[in-house]
Amino acid sequence: MAFEALGLDAEAVTGISPSVATDERDEAARLASHIGIAHRFVETHEMENPDYVANSAMRCFHCKNELFGILGAIATDAGDAVVVDGTNADDAGTGARGVKRPPRTCSQPTARSRVHKQDIRDLSREMGLPTWDKPAMACLASRIPHGTP
After folding, report:
1. What does each C-alpha distance from 106 to 2, 4, 43 come to in angstroms?
2. CA-CA distance, 73 to 84, in Å (whole number)?
3. Do 33 and 61 touch, CB atoms closer than 8 A?
4. pLDDT tens readout for residues 19-62
5. In a domain? residue 149
6. Measured between alpha carbons, how far is 124 from 88 in angstroms, rounded to an integer?
């Protein structure tokens, strides 16, 4: 939808992290190509944060904080760019509350508009996106019990 609204001014950014499966990265690139949107990968460094590595219930917070720090720098470098976060209404309370989002964020438009995962699937199917029925995929870190570094 960002690409429909902004055209060539839109860019998709995917974080590269040890907690994201390689297949997920490849699929992000294929989807961006299918849409026609500019796309880039950025490396995240949450593994360098001892608070993330401690693997507490705040793990998602530390990971998102790292990613949004990088996205904020990209937006700043681009001048008047806005970071649009794809969090949806079903994601509330998933551990990322309080994350320092970049100052120029569109403040989670899908979550604020009460758009749920099923709504996104329905819209994706209508738009002909190949990922409309893709199963949910939690990050690899979620498979490690909290408190286990």
Report:
1. 11, 16, 22
2. 14
3. no
4. 999 999 999 999 999 999 999 999 999 999 999 999 999 999 99
5. no
6. 14
Looking at the DSSP bridge assignments, the partners of residue 15 are: 42
Parent domain of 138 = 2-143
CATH number at residue 85: 3.40.50.620
Question: For residue 16, which phi and psi values (nearest 5 degrees)?
Answer: -100, 120
Distance of CA 144 to the CA centre of its chain: 20
Q: What is the Rg, in whole angstroms, of the alpha carbon atoms belonging to the chain?
A: 16
pLDDT per residue over 73-116, tens digit each?
998 898 878 888 888 898 866 655 667 776 666 678 888 899 99
Reference 88, options 119, 67, 66; nearest CA is 119
Nearest to 124 by CA among 137, 112, 110: 110
Distance between CA atoms of 81 and 117, rounded to whole angstroms?
26
Residue 82 CB-density burial (10 A; 0-12 exposed, 13-18 middle, 19+ buried): middle
Tokens, residue 95: 């551990």
Instruction: Indicate the number of domains in the chain.
Output: 1
Contacts of 37 (CB under 8 A, 6+ apart): 2, 3, 10, 11, 12
Q: How many CB atoms lie within 10 A of CB 69?
A: 15
